[in-house]
Design a protein that fits this description.
Layout: H1 4-32, E1 36-37, E2 49-50, H2 53-66, H3 78-100, H4 104-120, H5 140-160, H6 167-186, H7 189-211, H8 220-239, H9 244-252, H10 258-265, H11 267-282, H12 295-301, H13 306-329, H14 334-348, H15 352-362, H16 365-375, H17 383-394
Antiparallel strand pairs: 1-2
Length: 395
């Protein structure tokens, strides 16, 4: 029997070292070949930035997963091969979009086809509400379209939060850590190793993205689509009939809402994307028309640094998870747990943005307090963080 600690250490460390090695090389290649994200009126950077971070993360994650094939209890089976294939399709799609600017219709088609492969080849289905509203197993005619809708929605939500340094990668590190705890307790080593490998791959990228100057690289659509695909797979794994997690959840956590849990973990990206898309459609614009109305744009407008914005949004999301856990501890029903998550998710995204905009127009105390807090977040320009920036650029 393999020591369980190896399932944590090996994929995480291998992925971390692999990305640490390949990252500076990809920065040089991207700069030399002009594979960069150029500044414009919508974007926050002021100069071209290399945009092959997704390639680095994918490289590390796959190496981290592959190294576990040496374990006697190998998880390297047909399912993980399919997951890696879907991740690869997402990487190629996003990277081509970064370079060639694919149409939203083509991207959606590829995403839908990839999710259908997970459904019909890998058996991934969001087909169990675990007692929410008195409903358990869903029929295929409901589960299949629900899975497609949920997975494509999550993929694009993760793509759309990538607006400031470290936000998408930092958020995914946090989400993977939460999901990994559930997978480990449930004994789902395949999903656990996938989450550990992704954490290991994202940590060095996050450090360069946030603190690097010459070594800074964006993760790009290639990286965000890969992360979105993995997050959607985690959600379906938790909710799908027959998965180790679903069986563990039903047997050991009858008082917890699996649906509320998954929504809480991905709360801010999902609710912020819904708010932005609905607002655009109400204004007669395409829901995919780019603008500067996301939650991270609000924090930047308030004077928060990129680091401050990233940690503020992650803190908001963790607060929703904590509130969900509090509702469980108080014995709330499965339905009430979901309503609590929806309420706080809406407060932190759908209602927070217009409330701050209104406070700004009136120069209200709320606005002045938030701008004062924003000024306090520029700690990356001094002290230890300045030394960290120099260290990252020397790698």
């Amino acid at each position: 029997m393999t020591n369980p600690s190896l399932f944590i250490i090996v994929p995480l460390v291998v992925a971390l070292l692999a990305v640490g090695w390949v990252h500076p090389r990809l920065v040089r290649i991207a700069a030399m070949k002009m594979i960069v994200d150029n500044p414009d009126a919508r974007k926050l950077q002021k100069e071209p930035i290399p945009i092959l971070g997704g390639v680095a993360v994918m490289f590390g994650a796959v190496l981290g997963i592959s190294c576990t094939a040496v374990f006697p209890e190998t998880v390297f089976n047909d399912t993980i091969v399919l997951i890696i294939a879907v991740m690869m399709v997402m990487l190629y799609t996003g990277t081509m979009d970064d370079i060639l600017e694919l149409t939203p219709r083509l991207r959606f088609l590829i995403e839908i086809m990839s999710v259908c492969a997970l459904i019909f080849v890998g058996g991934f289905r969001l087909d169990d509400l675990h007692g929410l509203w008195g409903v358990s197993v869903l029929p295929d005619w409901v589960a299949v379209p629900l899975t497609v809708f949920a997975c494509v929605g999550i993929i694009n939500a993760m793509n759309l939060i990538d607006g400031v340094d470290g936000l998408s990668s930092g958020f995914c590190i946090t989400a993977c850590a939460i999901f990994s705890a559930v997978f480990f307790k449930a004994g789902d080593m395949m999903m656990f190793i996938l989450s550990m490998a992704l954490i290991g791959a994202l940590i060095p990228f996050f450090m360069h993205n946030v603190f690097g100057e010459r070594s800074k690289m964006f993760i790009g659509d290639g990286g965000t689509l890969v992360m979105g695909a993995v997050m959607s797979i985690f959600v379906v794994r938790v909710l799908g009939v027959g998965s180790p997690v679903a069986q563990f959840w039903d047997q050991s956590h009858a008082g917890m809402s699996a649906v509320a849990f998954t929504l809480a973990v991905l709360c801010v990206p999902v609710f912020d994307t819904l708010r932005v898309m609905v607002t655009r459609m109400l204004q007669g614009r395409s829901p995919f028309h780019p603008d500067k109305t996301h939650l991270h744009h609000m924090f930047i407008d308030l004077g928060f640094s990129h680091v401050g914005t990233t940690f503020s949004i992650i803190l908001l999301n963790l607060t929703v998870v904590a509130v969900w856990w509090a509702s469980v501890s108080m014995g709330c029903s499965l339905d009430v747990q979901l309503y609590v998550v929806i309420l706080f998710g809406s407060l932190f995204t759908i209602f927070l943005y217009p409330a701050v905009a209104a406070a700004k127009r009136r120069n209200a105390p709320l606005y002045r307090a938030l701008t004062a807090a924003g000024r306090m977040t520029h700690f990356e320009r001094k002290g230890f963080f300045l030394l960290l920036r120099k260290a990252m650029d020397r790698m």
